[in-house]
Design brief:
The structure is a homodimer of 359-residue chains. Chain A has 359 residues and is of the alpha/beta class. The first copy, chain A, folds into 3 domains: 7-57, lambda repressor-like DNA-binding domains (434 Repressor (Amino-terminal Domain), Orthogonal Bundle); 64-171 and 303-331, Response regulator (Rossmann fold, 3-Layer(aba) Sandwich); 172-301 and 336-357, Rossmann fold, CATH 3.40.50.2300. The first copy, chain A, contains 14 helices and 11 strands. A 6-stranded parallel β-sheet of chain A has the order 2-1-3-4-5-10, sandwiched between helices. In chain A, strand 3 (127-131), helix 7 (136-145) and strand 4 (149-152) form a beta-alpha-beta unit. The A-B interface holds A 1, 49, 51-54, 56-57, 96, 98-101, 115, 118-119, 121-124, 146 and B 1, 49, 51-54, 56-57, 96, 98-101, 115, 118, 121-124, 146. The structure holds a DNA duplex (30 and 30 nucleotides).
Chain lengths: 359, 359
DNA sequence: CGGGTCTGTGGAAACGATTTCATGAACCGC
DNA sequence: GCGGTTCATGAAATCGTTTCCACAGACCCG
């Protein structure tokens, strides 16, 4: 194999010093346009490619960041969108993203973050984005790396310990409140929240539901849902449980689109039509939301913006050489589709359990 | 932040030269045991960590390889096992694995292999393992990187172009043959293969089925299966098609465990019992195989060995500094569980469509 | 016109390891 | 005892960048 061209040979060919070549590549604005032209021609002619290893040794940032994605079953579609948004922004500002999956072990101890740790220890990444993986043990491990990082998702923000670094999150509580308000505005009064509130995101979303109910002088009903890891199943089970118990309700606020999907399936089993007999709203504006039958009214999480914002903040932190403390809350948006409508004149269980009561 | 310790400070502390410290770390066998001890103590005392960037610049291999995994829906469980096997072997010989997912676009052009390309261009990886991604465009791209690589899966091996570099594969044809022979030995004669033979792995497996049938002086039946990307669905559809067509068969050779899973579901829909009325064998010994109801007789792919072998070969190639040409074929193994038994005295469709013919 | 600031530039010093090469000591066999 | 081999070692060269610093020339302003 031919020995690769070095910066020195380019400098010699262009009749300049190595420093100038380096500047042409990294700080072109401080070098004479004519010189730039000459150097660039030499680079082209010789087919020079900067040696990344050498650049790395001589005080460079690596230009790479690690995007740590949870492989947790929750909301993968949204995480994918976040990743996409991050990738685009990274492309824009010229940094590279290395992905890593961390296995999600909420209960058992340290999740697998060996890849980012390794890369960090070797000085190959400048920062880390934690997407949906901000559990105490991971955040702590990140802290020890002394590397800028940004967290997406706010599972720790409401807890006693404040999130120690920059974070991007979406106003889930507000989103859920608006979804509930939408149902209230349509005239619904008997509204049930579906979601496993032992999981922090469902808890926050339930809060929003409660806010809206109280504001309308209604008593919030207890949340329905257990074992939320598989959201679709949880939705199914929850809806069945409601129907079996004979609770009366005209609308459901599902804690996620997947939960909504499951619930709709269960309602259909019982011969109930959405939205004619039951209205339902989801959360996330997942891919499946618009494909749902009927298309799902839901709360859109601006996932691509989340990703982009993460990259921006991280980039800023890298530029400054230290972690920043920025907290960015992105607004959510209610997307009204066809799974919600004005309530029938009577509650669903009256309709369902007692045919005589029909007017 | 405190300036990190360099090799020079360690050398000074231990009263030796930097060369000796370097040797203690990299070639301890050529340095005096007493000196080793002394240097190690200094390293310990000062908390010295070698600077990876510097090591990289000074003629080092990165000690990292890239494991390129297809995100293709096929056989993810097996790929996971391959990855696991590779990880263990890598751990053993002290090299690190960086994962990358490539999006699978068989038809549209170059799949996304930017991450390995980037890492290779930057000299951060010493080699690449392509797991289930050996499609022409990717192999070609790898070729251009001038980096050792190993391919798992043999989709190109039987084609006109020979696989250009080392490859690890399993004898799928033989596996499928043995599975079929197992059914023949039990007394089955009407055996159908399920699998989309437009996909190369199903094609190879179908070949094995044909071999066994011909050897038993039976006419191989045409394969059943289309749109094989979603194996479970394909299995379902194929079994339904067989039953609808009224074809007579007592046993199925499924091209994958997932296909078998789908087929079993469809058979159950029609009230047919496995293995009492229909025997079925799978392929892969996927996680789901032993969880299947009934536990699936299948062909075990030694996935962990595949992963380990890939790493071994790649490591050897890296050591030699060039790609090798080794082709390793690992043996498969028939795992007999409970989805196969001797056939009923009559074919299933006679049983199913014509009650009178029961003896 | 002279002193200051600003630009553009090149030589050389990092960066922190590995590797080469020379050296001296120890050991071996005749 | 002596040339020759092996072993353990350290000084210095090397890897290919970036960055520091000095310097020359252009420009500006009073």
């Amino acid at each position: 194999m031919p020995k690769p061209i070095t910066i020195r040979e380019v400098a010699a060919d262009a009749g300049v010093g190595t420093a100038t070549v380096s500047r042409v590549l990294n700080e072109p604005w401080r070098v004479n346009p004519q010189t730039i032209e000459r150097v660039k021609q030499s680079i082209q002619k010789l087919g020079y490619k900067p040696n990344f290893r050498a650049r790395l040794l001589a005080h460079g940032n690596s230009g790479m960041i690690c995007f740590l994605l949870s492989n947790r079953p929750f909301a993968h579609a949204v995480h994918g969108q976040v990743l996409q948004g991050a990738a685009e922004q990274a492309e824009l500002i010229g940094i590279q993203i290395v992905y890593a999956c961390c296995t999600y072990d909420a209960d058992t101890q340290p999740s697998d973050i060996r890849l980012p740790q390794l890369l960090a220890a070797r000085g190959l990444i400048d920062g880390v984005i934690l997407a949906g993986t901000n559990y105490a043990n991971i955040v702590e491990a990140m802290e020890q790396l002394e590397l800028p990082y940004v967290v997406f998702g706010t599972n720790l923000i409401n807890d006693d310990k404040p999130a120690p670094r920059s974070a991007v999150y979406v106003d889930e509580q507000e989103g859920s409140r608006r979804a509930t308000e939408h149902l209230l505005a349509l005239g619904h009064r008997q509204i049930v929240f579906i979601g496993d509130t032992s999981l922090p995101w469902y808890r926050r979303r339930y809060q929003g539901y409660c806010d809206a109910m109280r504001e309308a002088n209604l008593l919030p009903l207890p949340p329905v849902g257990k074992d939320g890891a598989d959201a679709v199943r949880m939705g199914e089970r929850s809806a069945r449980e409601l129907l079996c118990r004979g609770d009366e309700f005209t609308a459901l606020v599902a804690g996620s689109d997947r939960a909504a999907h499951g619930a709709i399936g269960a309602l259909r089993e019982y011969g109930l039509k959405v939205p004619e007999q039951i209205s339902i709203v989801g959360f996330d504006d997942d891919e499946i939301a618009s494909l749902e039958e009927p298309p799902l009214t839901t709360v859109r999480v601006p996932a691509d913006q989340v990703g982009a914002k993460c990259v921006q903040i991280l980039n800023e932190a890298i530029r400054l050489g230290r972690s920043t403390q920025e907290k960015v809350c992105l607004p959510v948006e209610l997307v009204v589709r066809q799974s919600t409508s004005i309530p029938k004149t009577q509650t669903i269980n009256a309709l369902y359990t007692d045919e005589r009561s029909r007017i």
